[in-house]
Specification:
This protein is about 70% helix and about 0% strand. The protein is mostly helical. It has two domains: about 90 residues, no CATH class; about 170 residues, Farnesyl Diphosphate Synthase, CATH 1.10.600.
Length: about 280
């Protein structure tokens, strides 16, 4: 059987061209290395869940292998896997957090709906809040510090992603993350999203959801451990980038079925510079 190609974490980060990969550039070299490994792990398990050329069964098998690797039930097969498995030991957090991220990605293996916001929030916790909790340890914050900040920020970022990607998620296997209870409350049907023809309730639904996302951005700022701000450059850069995307959507009437919102490279660089300057002044 042909062996899988070796994984280069730095190459994964470069090729992804995501906002998180950009934010990692403002970290000190030693912490950037471990954060790049962690980011590549998150990206890999997410890509496994989304890999349309594999059967659901095969994707479950691959995710199961990673679950055993991070919990110590399977010997890492290569250097990258060993680096991932070493993160909890080196930074003092439970391997169960990495397992939760895998569990969150596994929720995307099959098309599903979230009946309530409570259900969606649990998904967001696994795929975003837990990422924030692990990141705090990799940034060098002590255990127990900043957890409310990480949870609220993760939820704000994921909700912003969900709103921005309503159209692309539908095109990617008819996925819909907006809570069904909210669609019903605003008189929105899935057919509007499928046809990219929003009815009168759709803008009200999006406004409601973006108001909710803003409350979590505000809650993150309120819970931010400012005495550790010098180590939060990357997460603060992410906060400013995604808050900017959300505000751009709001200013444009949430036309997410027509266009995909993003910030320019120049704007992102300005945000990174601002995060670095603010951290130096803390």
């Amino acid at each position: 059987m042909t062996e899988a190609p070796a994984i280069d974490a730095a190459d994964v980060a470069r090729r992804a061209k995501s906002n998180l990969a950009i934010a990692l550039s403002c970290l000190p070299r030693d912490r950037r290395c471990d954060m790049t490994t962690f980011y590549a792990f998150c990206r890999l398990v997410d890509d496994i869940a989304d890999e349309g050329t594999l059967s659901v069964r095969d994707r479950r098998i691959q995710l199961g292998a990673w679950r055993r690797i991070v919990t110590g039930g399977q010997e890492p097969a290569d250097g990258f896997a060993r680096d991932v498995a070493a993160l909890p030991v080196r930074h003092g957090f439970s391997p169960a957090l990495l397992e939760e991220i895998i569990d969150g990605c596994a929720m995307d293996l099959e098309v599903r709906r979230f009946a309530t916001f409570a259900e969606l929030r649990e998904y967001c916790h696994k795929v975003a809040g837990v990422v924030g909790l692990v990141s705090l340890r990799l940034f060098g914050l002590p255990a127990g510090v900043g957890e409310a900040y990480a949870e609220n920020l993760g939820l704000a970022l994921q909700l912003t992603n969900i709103l921005r990607d309503v159209r692309t998620d539908w095109e990617n296997g008819q996925r819909l993350y907006l809570p069904l209870e909210d669609l019903a409350a605003h008189g929105v049907g899935e057919s509007e999203i499928a046809a990219r023809q929003p009815g009168p309730g759709f803008p009200r639904l999006m406004q409601f959801e973006s108001d909710r996302a803003l409350t979590y951005f505000d809650a993150a700022v309120a819970a931010r451990p400012d005495q550790w701000l010098s180590r939060l450059q990357a997460s603060e850069a992410m906060r400013h980038i995604y808050h900017g995307i959300l505000m751009r959507m709001r200013a444009d009437g949430h036309r997410v079925l027509e266009r995909r919102y993003r910030l320019s490279a120049a704007r992102k660089l300005a945000i990174l510079a601002g995060a670095w300057i603010r951290s130096r002044g803390s």
